[in-house]
Design goal:
The structure is a homodimer.
Chain A: H1 3-9, H2 15-24, E1 26-30, E2 35-37, E3 45-51, E4 54-59, E5 65-71, H3 78-85, E6 93-96, E7 100-106, H4 107-116, H5 118-144, H6 147-162, E8 166-167, H7 171-177, H8 182-194, E9 198-200, E10 205-207
Antiparallel strand pairs in A: 1-7, 2-6, 3-7, 4-5, 4-6, 8-10, 9-10
Helix pairs in contact in A: 3-4, 4-5, 7-8
Chain A binds a DNA duplex through residues 146-148, 170-172, 180-184, 186-187, 189-190, 200, 202-203.
DNA sequence: TATTTGTTGTGACTTGCATCACGGAATATG
DNA sequence: CATATTCCGTGATGCAAGTCACAACAAATA
């Protein structure tokens, strides 16, 4: 990983910071499907996504995983940033959706750089802000919306993140991530297809126009 | 407000920071029930709670307010901290539960102090961390728990924050804050009283032992 | 090819909860 | 004191969604 590569994904960082990140950070490549952070795990480093896409979940006692949001290239896990300083355990679960490269920054630098590099402090704050907003959006959906709307939201995010109208995810998996059941997803999908919002091909789903889902 | 008063509520802050807070911050007293931050409001300052107790809500399109968490003395509103820097609008609603005193710090200082005062940077990070955790807990409840458990959680927090077993809140209000309905709360309360977890006195509710709610 | 495994579709049933429609008790206000 | 207002209790009803049971596929594998 060269300075140029890193600068490409983190364009706001000043040169000195990039240099130091390369010096002290540990690059790690992750396979699709791998789990990077586990709930309850003790974290002593910040995690930045250099390449690839992660998914962040909240896990309940019985092991159900509620999908909260995606983490793109150039973003950081807010939990890992925040845990890096305090004596924190995770609280969330992070999985790689694609093969990915992450940069692991030891906790002490996370702290030190806040005073040292303005761009780092801003990055940290921006990270918090964005994740915070995303959590609020999750709460909106879970607290106020019905499953049909949440499914549409789920599909919309997939569409945006992967820039495709093809949803290869099985109904079983979608159901797990929305903390619902396969049958419910199946029936809701049928309704969506009746409205002309999606097409069902048995094996996969293709999005036509999610706006049509609004009745 | 003297330096001594402020130090009492924010003991980790160094003397210089306290001095500067008094110089540039605006103290404001708030009446019980007043709204401090509105959803969608543009925020150009951080808000610290010096005295009193606030309640933070998430509002949906139709004006329903979902109660998320309390904000104690010595704490800051994470949203206001984070919005102070970015070009942010609020996303949450803050109300005073008791008469309160808040300290308003203009956005530019929020930013500046992160590099200047270590205790401030740590305070900011700690604030994010705590609020973040609280949001995750909210998601847990809304996503995974039924109304009965959420009601018990609601009562438990009241008990802790006000250090009392007396709940003077009307069922109608509890229902609104949990995004439920009065009748449902009424029936669940009855169940709780049958289990010996609470006593119903018509006008108010008194907690006996919330552990007994677990069946 | 035959079998296993993972997928979706669907009817029947149950449950949690919102809503409606009362009525009665308590409190406030004229 | 009378009336209005606000609160709570409770049955009836409807809907969203979770669960069960079973069938029809398709893809992978022996």
């Amino acid at each position: 990983m060269t300075e140029k590569d890193l600068t490409k994904h983190f364009p706001t960082f000043e040169r000195d910071l990039i240099t130091e990140m390369i010096r002290v950070g540990e690059l790690k490549t992750i396979r699709e499907g791998d789990t990077i952070i586990r709930t309850g795990q003790n974290i002593r480093a910040a995690i930045l996504v250099v390449e690839g896409l992660l998914k962040i979940y909240r896990e309940d006692d019985s092991g159900d995983e509620y999908f909260m949001y995606y983490l793109d290239e150039g973003k950081a896990c807010a939990i890992s940033l925040v845990c890096a300083l305090g004596i924190g355990t995770s609280g969330v679960l992070a999985k790689a959706v694609t093969d990915a490269t992450i940069l692991i920054i030891p906790a002490n630098y996370v702290d030190e750089w806040i005073g040292k590099y303005k761009s780092w402090a801003q990055f940290a704050v921006m990270t918090y802000r964005e994740r915070f907003e995303e959590l609020l959006e999750v709460i909106d959906h879970v607290a106020f919306r019905n499953m049909d709307e949440r499914l549409v939201f789920y599909l919309k995010r997939y569409q945006e993140k992967f820039n495709t109208n093809n949803i290869p995810t099985s109904f079983t998996e979608i159901a797990q991530e929305l903390n619902s059941s396969r049958e419910v997803i199946s029936r809701l999908m049928k309704k969506l297809s009746e409205k002309g919002a999606v097409n069902l091909h048995g094996s996969h789903v293709s999005i036509i126009d999610l706006e049509k889902a609004l009745d």
